[in-house]
Design goal:
Blueprint (H helix, E strand, L loop, with lengths): L1 E7 L15 E11 L4 E11 L11 E4 L31 H27 L3 E4 L10 H8 L5 E3 L12 H17 L8 E6 L2 H11 L5 E7 L13 H7 L2 H6 L18 H12 L8 H4 L6 H7 L3 H4 L10 H14 L4 E6 L16 E2 L7 H4 L6 E2 L5 H4 L5 H6 L3 E5 L19 H9 L5
Parallel strand pairs: 1-4, 5-6, 5-7, 7-8, 8-9, 9-12
Antiparallel strand pairs: 1-3, 2-3, 10-11
GO cellular component, one term: lysosome
Pfam families: Palm_thioest
Organism: Phytophthora cactorum
Length: about 450
Amino acid sequence: MLDVYMYLPSGAAIFMHSKLESNLQCKWNVLMKETKFSVQTLATIRCNSVNESHHALQPPTSRMALAPTDDEGKSTPLPVIRVPHNGFRQEAPQSPVSTMICRSILLALVSCVFASVASAASDLPVIFFHGVFSTYEAGDNFVANLTAEGRTVVSLSFCDGSCSKESLLLQVPKAVETVREVVANNSVFDDGYIFIAHSQGGPIARAVIEEMDDHKVKRFISLAGLQNGQFIGPDKVEVSIANNAVFLTMLVPETMFNYSAYGPEDYYGKMQKDYVLYSIENPDSQYTYSQFNVNRWPQFGSFSTANFFLPVYNNVNQCLPGNDQCIYDKNRRKANFLKLEEAHFFTSPADDVIMPWQSCIFGRYSEVDTIEEIETQYNNLTVVDMKDTLEYTADTFGLQTLEKRGGLFLHEIANVSHGCWAVDDKDTGCSWATVYDQYIYPTLV
């Protein structure tokens, strides 16, 4: 007799019958285990030899755990019995035929499990968030490709076109409301869904995840999303100078902050310092345009208090003594982020829109002590890796925890321009289909 036990992740299916060797009779049993975060299936197969003989199968036992979680959402693998190299604990002599059959059963089971898990994952519906100046049509390629294989895809239109320049403090509540409407009106979302977000849609989607206590996002895919904000630093300042502030003036009107008044020499810290001072002196600007919300200037003290968006969703905002609501909200946002099973963050050094491009994988510029040093120490600024940031080392909203669970993936891909994560880029010759097939699609199955 052979007993095999295995957990299947949420949503996985398992064949309830199997045609094995003719001298074996096998019976399946399936038990469901519901936890706070998922429903797991314990499948048991028990096989007995029909033709009893001198070499009849003895009852060895092997257990395999495929990422089950406990009630706290932590991985709790089943105890694995240490076995000899042949894959089974020997309690009595077995014939080579018996051992071979046992191995075949296990290999077949593993194949079934992984095939069914992949099938379950590939059935998850997708919700797409576009970037600034874009509309829901930016998700057309994803809609076309994924619906062709029978999946449900919704490209959101809660703030299209010029609306997408608005403050993220105003956009996020709209996004939350829209997501709730989408998932409430279609039962296909009941078992979870995937967020795909491009550019500015990246921080918006993450904010939605952190704000929605009732979200069922299983996987978050951020494509060139400025997750740690935007700051024109020394490594690509020439790109901004060559652009002659055209893009910046599209984001913020000259009546608020006149980028075009600055010459090339001012891009080496003076313009950035003045923009920070304007943000601090005009706190209402945080409720006007998104560019004020994503400005991640390198002086932490003022950034963490004067920026009302990014410090909050990075969970580095300061809670005053006795402000229990602030502390509660920080814990709530982290818990909501950690409902994710996987998070994939994509970036490319070829991105000339997000500065630094490492922001898409939670990098940022090094800190200075004073606002004045944004200008005087500008050329000394360097990019800090995610693992050296406060957000990671203090695990402020869950990056470190998610990584330890095996659910955090940072993808640095060469030669992908900013727009090519969603559409073809004729200027650079970047093909969206190639990027999708090679890098994005594998995270969707």
